[in-house]
Design a protein that fits this description.
The protein is of the alpha/beta class. It contains 24 helices and 8 strands. It has 3 domains: 207 residues, Clc chloride channel, CATH 1.10.3080.10; 198 residues, Orthogonal Bundle (Clc chloride channel), CATH 1.10.3080.10; 136 residues, Roll (CBS-domain), CATH 3.10.580. 65% of the residues lie in helices and 8% in strands. The strands form 2 sheets. Strands 1-3-4-6-7-8 form a 6-stranded mixed β-sheet. Strands 2-5 form a two-stranded antiparallel sheet. The radius of gyration is 29 Å and the shape is elongated. One of its GO terms (cellular component) is chloride channel complex. It comes from Marinobacter salsuginis. Keywords: Chloride, Chloride channel, Ion channel, Ion transport, Membrane, Transmembrane, Transmembrane helix, Transport.
Length: 591
């Protein structure tokens, strides 16, 4: 058994890593996608259990969302006590450890190649459970995406995979988390690519699809095959409803813009103490919890009741508006809440309210309240996240009804346009990143460079050699016919030398010695002979081409030697990369 494990670690895993350096390693990426999905599915099951178990035992009534049945005093104390506890937890953490949610995943992808720590995952798990259990206006999907991305990233880090593969694993974790949360594999895939990665690639689709499917299988084994909401058969009764659907799209687009603006405005107070901000968020939640308890927790019970037409107009309108206000204020103040669930709640209640108005205007043509509630969910999600395709796929998978596609496309694209063009709002996540002084680079060039590791294009024809050599040692060095010589210094490689330059020097020296013009040299100084030497700097084997270019800019080096830590204080050099190699690779791929 030990011999088999030795063969795997010494031969198979290094080959697996090397294949993953390139952009076309589909079989290897497929295996990673499956592992990520299974792993993430298990993590999301534990996360959901940690939320549902205490609520089912603590709350009166049936299910894990009956906050409405609590007495007034408990409803008021619970979110305030939860906010104080969360504030104290966040206060004890360093600033960089407080960051959670989808925004943090995007930051780690953009600035740290998808590396997410176990500490970050644990903080997200605890805060994600605490926000929902304490009755904050929160969702579980944002924390689930963070957890899926984090544990997939940790799996890649443990396997010491190239950074381009870790980025793909993060996307797999995001897709798997959405798939496991809603039982919607397709929307999970589109969400990961449209919202988090902001790119579509053929190589990326395969592992992300496999991750979403395997995660859905894991959760279906426990929760069954039904989607997150119980949706009756829905259809649009008449084309006469199109103008009203467009009107609803405008209203929801305005509501989404208001939501993003409130988050942005409150986010400008991020420099204030975190304990103060989260405590204020808890205080603000108290009157909402007392008078409109539907805003507490995830609120999927209210969404189901809306879809089934069980709620009155003023309750729908009040709950939707209240959810919009308190969620935006809480998130802006730093409450570690998920946002996807609240957007679905807002969309369903506001859409349902508009559906009831439509039924009064055109009673003979109007569709059911559930139909408008579902359209509202898709429209709000698409507008807030600026992800129309992910919203449409979610709408289709949740209803399992192709009749929703045409009106869904119309309302989602219109509401997204109203939010982005009429009010100039970017997606909520990009807005929060900007508020933190960060950006999200997603130009085609950068995306292309991030998909490939230096291991895919480095020149492996190298030989490490000391600076001072005898003539015999120099001949021995050239005998293996390397292309490059990496000249060692006192603290590592100091220069890169074309081997042909050393061969030319030896040939010229031999001629001069034969002509008795010079004495045979006792030693050769590789830093002194005529040669096209290049200054070098290190780059890690896992680095992407984007990181390599950043290293060129930071060090002004003319070449990078690719190294990996193989033992304490020992770095192995695998190859060299020139800036021209990166430019040639990109030009070749683009053509």
């Amino acid at each position: 058994m030990q011999k088999i494990w030795h063969q795997i670690t010494e031969h198979l895993i290094p080959v697996f890593r090397r294949r993953l350096s390139g952009v076309d390693a589909l079989p290897q990426l497929a295996v990673l996608g499956l592992l990520s999905g299974l792993f993430t599915g298990g993590v999301i099951l534990v996360f959901r259990l940690a939320i549902e178990w205490p609520l089912e035992h603590f709350l009166p009534g049936e299910g894990s969302e009956s906050f409405e049945e609590l007495d007034l005093l408990t409803r008021g104390i619970l979110p305030l006590a939860g906010a104080l506890g969360l504030g104290l937890l966040m206060h004890r953490l360093a600033t960089h450890d407080r960051k959670v949610g989808i925004v943090h995943v995007m930051e780690r992808l953009n600035y740290h190649q998808g590396y997410i720590s176990m500490r970050s995952a644990m903080v997200q798990f605890i805060s994600g459970v605490a926000t929902v259990v304490s009755g904050q206006s929160a969702g579980r999907e944002g924390p689930a995406v963070h957890l899926g991305a984090a544990f997939s990233s940790l799996m890649g880090q443990w396997m010491r995979l190239p950074n381009n593969s870790i980025r793909t694993l993060v996307a797999c974790g995001c897709a798997a988390a959405i798939s496991a949360s809603f039982n919607t594999p397709i929307s999970g895939v589109i969400f990961a690519m449209e919202v988090v990665m902001m790119e579509y690639t053929i190589a990326g689709f395969t592992p992300i699809i496999l991750a979403a499917v395997s995660a859905a299988i894991v959760t279906q084994a426990v929760y069954g095959a039904e989607p997150a909401f119980s949706v009756p058969a829905l259809t649009m009764n008449s084309l006469m409803e199109i103008p009203w659907i467009l009107a609803i799209a405008v209203i929801i687009g305005i509501a989404a813009a208001l939501f993003i603006q409130l988050v942005d405005t409150m986010g400008k107070h991020h420099h204030r103490p975190v304990l103060l901000r989260i405590t204020i968020a808890g205080l603000l939640m108290v009157p909402f919890a007392i008078f409109i308890p539907e805003t507490m927790g995830i609120g999927y019970d209210t969404v189901n009741e809306t879809i089934n037409g069980e709620l009155a107009f003023w309750l729908l309108l009040g709950a939707g508006a209240a959810k919009l206000v308190i969620t935006s204020l809480s998130i802006g103040l730093g409450m570690p809440s998920g946002v996807i669930g609240p957007t679905l709640f807002m969309g369903a209640t506001l859409g349902g309210a508009m559906g009831l108005i439509g039924a009064q205007i055109l009673p003979e043509h109007a569709s059911s309240v559930g139909f408008y509630a579902m359209l509202g969910m898709g429209a709000m999600m698409g507008a807030v996240l600026q992800a129309p395709l992910a919203a449409l796929m979610a709408l289709m998978e949740l209803t399992r009804n192709p009749n929703i596609i045409l009106p869904g496309m119309l309302i989602i694209t219109t509401s997204s346009l109203v939010t982005s063009e009429a009010f100039g709002k970017k997606s909520l996540f990009l807005t929060i990143l900007k508020n933190q002084g960060l950006s999200y680079q997603n130009s085609p060039v950068i995306q292309a460079l991030r998909r490939v590791s230096v291991g895919a294009i480095m020149d492996r024809s190298i030989l490490r050699t000391e600076r001072h050599l005898t003539v015999e040692e120099a001949r021995k060095v050239l005998k293996s016919e390397p292309k490059w010589l990496v000249v060692e210094g006192s603290s590592g490689p100091t220069a890169l030398l074309p081997a042909v330059d050393l061969a030319r020097y030896l040939e010229d020296t031999e001629k001069l010695v034969a002509d008795e013009e010079i004495e045979p040299p006792e030693s050769i100084d590789l830093m002194d002979i005529p040669a096209n030497r290049r200054d070098v700097a290190p780059v890690q084997y896992q680095a992407t081409l984007e990181e390599a270019l950043d290293q060129f800019d930071a060090t002004n080096a003319e070449a990078l030697y690719v190294q990996r830590h193989v033992a304490p204080m020992i770095q192995r050099v695998y190859g060299v990369v020139l800036k021209a190699d990166i430019e040639s690779y990109y030009q070749y791929r683009r053509s």
